[in-house]
Amino acid sequence: MKKNNTNEHIGKICQYYRQQNNLTQNQVAELTGLEPRHISQIERGFSKGSIDTLIKLCNAYKITPDIILYDLLDEDIKNSISIYDEKFKKLSKRDKESILHFIDYFLTT
């Protein structure tokens, strides 16, 4: 994927999750300590930010970095990742704990 496409992809995903969390760019700036201008640049694909920035945004949006980065992987890598693993990562902590409890139950019976 080309640099511009990478930046655009990251920007669209960040914007989507910001909106899903009903946050403005100013609110994200307050949560992350980033400048609203920088958040705008990321969402418009002009910048992808650093890893530190990515982590701050993920914490603000309550997602993991793989949600933003998954589609940037080569197809052969994506094909080797279990669909269940991908979906599991998107669950809340509480839901993950519930599922792991059921797995433990079934493994011990």
Can I get a quick summary?
This protein is an all-alpha fold.
Describe the model:
With 109 residues, the protein is mostly helical. It has two domains: 1-72, 434 Repressor (Amino-terminal Domain) (Orthogonal Bundle); 74-109, no CATH class. Helices cover 72% and strands 0% of the residues. It is built from eight helices and no strands. It has helices at residues 3-20, 25-32, 36-43, 51-61, 65-69, 75-80, 83-89, 93-108. Helix 2 crosses helix 3 (36-43). The longest helix has 18 residues, at 3-20. The model has no long low-confidence stretch (mean pLDDT 89).
Write the layout of secondary structure elements.
Elements: H1 3-20, H2 25-32, H3 36-43, H4 51-61, H5 65-69, H6 75-80, H7 83-89, H8 93-108
Count the E strands: 0
What are the low-pLDDT stretches, counting only 5+ consecutive residues below 50? none
**CATH homologous superfamily of the largest domain - what is it?**
lambda repressor-like DNA-binding domains
CATH names the topology of the largest domain as 434 Repressor (Amino-terminal Domain)
Helix content: over 70%
> What is the name of the CATH architecture of the largest domain?
Orthogonal Bundle
> Which class do the helix and strand fractions yield?
mainly alpha
Strand content: under 5%
Counted up, domains total: 2
- The rounded distance between the terminal residues' Cα atoms is 47 Å
Rg result: 16 Å
Outline: flat
Main β sheet profile: none
The top level CATH class name of the largest domain = Mainly Alpha
Number of helices: 8
Average pLDDT, all residues: 89
